[in-house]
Structures are given as structure tokens and as C-alpha cells.
Amino acid sequence: MKLQATRKGLQLAELIRQEGVSHPDVIRVIAATPRDMFVPEGLKHKAYENNALPIGLGQTISQPFTVAQMTEQLLNAPFTINKVLEIGTGSGYQTAILAQLFPEVYSVERIKSLQFHAKRRMNQLDLHNVKMKHGDGWQGWSSKAPFDAIIVTAAASSLPEALIKQLSETGRLVIPVGENQQKLVLINKDSTALKTDEIGDVRFVPLVAGALA
Ligand code: SAH
């Protein structure tokens, strides 16, 4: 069953369109995704504001504009994207957006309880084209590679080598890079080279290195 636009969803989508994301498919799925399901009980009244919100354990659900902006980078790829890998499932909001746009979505999260709740939300929304894993996103998901696109929703101190390796021969990586000063970076891979473009300034929680919490 396809998710239907709601009044609040449409208002949020309109806000995002005014901020500069225009791809009709992004606007459509933002309008149809119930963001209130992805935020804690006490913050539901803020779910349709264009802000990041705490989701517990020191993590945040990303700002809707940023989610839209990153998703648009995938939709604008000059090749077909079938398989997408997301690093940093968090609430699962970005995952749910991707699942409505691409045939196969994979998502890795290092905090088990966040992953558990995100998985439950995918089931509630009937989004069955998502596979989730508890693990370290710096390592990607090698057994499911290659991916046509990879989207990282936490800021990396440097480019994770494993993710570049796990891109398809023609593939696209969208990743925030940096610590205090973060840039959203778009990396295009083709059979001969990597091309890097900066898209803008962003603020994400860090992509934590090493062992699982
Ligand atoms: N897309 C999410 C963003 C959540 S914040 C949303 O909109 O809800 C970033 C997430 O990345 C957090 O849940 C955090 O636990 C996770 N994360 C941080 N470092 C990670 C790592 N090395 N591997 C996997 N997930 C990581």
C-alpha cells in the first residue's frame, strides 16, 4: 500500500520546496511520510517543523530539509539506482523516504535499540524492501555490495575507504565530512575516476569510529 500525503506532510513538503529542493519525487514522499512516527512521544508536536530533533542516546532525527537535499542528490544521478545503502539508520525516517523511491534499501546502525525501533516502524508502514543490520558503518555492508548509491547520515572525519569500494562501478556517495565544520560531499564514481563536489554546509552527529555501543 502506498503511503498517502497528509495535511501536515504537505505543509512540511512546501517548506522544503521553498528552501530549494524541487524534485517532485522528494516532495511527494516527504508529504506522505508520517514523521511523527519517528520522533519520541513528547516531541510529536514538533515533528513537522523543519528541524532536527533528539531521538535519545545522544542521537538525532535529521532535519527534513537535509534529508530532502541528500535524497535529491540520488534522484538526480544520471544512471539508474536500484540498490541503496544508508549508514546511520537512527529513527529510520531517511530509510523510509529511500524505501519509497528505490527498489532495494539497506541500512546499518551501530546502536541496537535504535535499529530495533526503526525496523518496527518499517513494518508498521508496510515498507518491506528494507534490510537492516546492526554494525559499524565505517565497514559498510560488504556481503550485500555493490551499491548504486550510498548515503551517510552521520559526519565522517574522513572518507571511509570501505564505502568507496562498495560502490558499483558507476555509483554515487553522499556524505557529510568534517568535525566542527562539516561539508556535505557528493562523490561520483565511474569506471575511471572519482569526482568530488561540495554541496554545502551541514551539521550531523559524528560517524563514530570503532566498537559497537
Ligand atoms: N538518518 C537518521 C539519522 C540519525 S543520526 C535519522 O534521520 O533518524 C545518525 C545515526 O548514525 C545515529 O543513529 C548513530 O547511532 C549512527 N551512527 C553513528 N556512527 C555510526 C557507525 N559507525 N555505524 C553505524 N551507525 C552509526
Automatic annotation (TrEMBL):
The active site is at S62. It comes from the Bacteria. GO terms for molecular function: protein-L-isoaspartate (D-aspartate) O-methyltransferase activity. Its main location: cytoplasm. Its EC number is 2.1.1.77. One of its GO terms (biological process) is methylation. Keywords: Cytoplasm, Methyltransferase, S-adenosyl-L-methionine, Transferase. It is found in: Cytoplasm. It is an enzyme of class 2 (transferase). It catalyses: [protein]-L-isoaspartate + S-adenosyl-L-methionine = [protein]-L-isoaspartate alpha-methyl ester + S-adenosyl-L-homocysteine. NCBIfam families: pimt, PRK00312.1. Catalyzes the methyl esterification of L-isoaspartyl residues in peptides and proteins that result from spontaneous decomposition of normal L-aspartyl and L-asparaginyl residues. It plays a role in the repair and/or degradation of damaged proteins. Belongs to the methyltransferase superfamily. L-isoaspartyl/D-aspartyl protein methyltransferase family. This is Protein-L-isoaspartate O-methyltransferase. The lineage of its organism: Bacteria, Pseudomonadati, Pseudomonadota, Gammaproteobacteria, Alteromonadales. The gene is pcm.
